[in-house]
Design a protein that fits this description.
SH3 type barrels, 3 helices, 44% strand, mainly beta, 2 domains
């Protein structure tokens, strides 16, 4: 929903850029912002999530062109930009088996935290069970190569379910 969307300026009422990809903090799965391309100069800039005023079906709304920032100016995001964490395509495993790869994710628009991962299974596993939805609370570990989640076959005690 966020990728390849026009960035719309409230001040001019026109598109000022296009989102290219999300900048995801691997430590907490928060979308910190988006790489984007500014329309007039074609320069790659960053739109911080905090500068987004609204998300519409027509695009992402910001105040004006000043919301787009050069990556060199964002000292706070330097380490996250260096990691260049990509969630799509990341392998998802339990302690016992490989489940598949992340094909999509759901985001809480108010907080910009990723709430759910959608895991595409291999063709063989897909015949048996289809895609898997993984809640944020099921994630145990995120590394450069994979995401480790709770074993899906574990039974959750009834009392624990009631407390949750």
């Amino acid at each position: 929903m966020f990728i390849s969307q026009p960035i719309l300026s409230l001040r001019t009422g026109t598109p000022i850029g296009t989102t290219l990809s999300a900048i995801i903090n691997p430590n907490n799965l928060k979308i910190e912002g988006f790489f984007c391309q500014e329309n007039s100069t074609r320069k790659q800039l960053i739109l911080l999530a905090q500068d987004i005023r609204e998300i519409l079906s027509q695009g992402v709304v910001v105040n004006d062109l000043d919301a787009l920032t050069d990556p060199e100016e964002l000292i706070r995001l330097k380490d996250i930009l260096k990691v260049n964490f990509q969630l799509i395509g990341k392998i998802v495993v339990t302690e016992k088996e490989r489940l598949g790869k992340v094909s999509d994710y759901a985001v809480d628009i108010d907080s910009m935290f990723i709430q759910k991962l959608y895991v595409a299974q291999s063709v063989f596993k897909n015949f048996r069970g289809g895609n898997i939805g993984v809640e944020r609370s099921q994630i145990l570990e995120i590394t450069d190569r994979r995401i480790v989640i709770n074993d899906l076959s574990q039974k959750v005690p009834i009392r624990a379910r009631a407390l949750a």
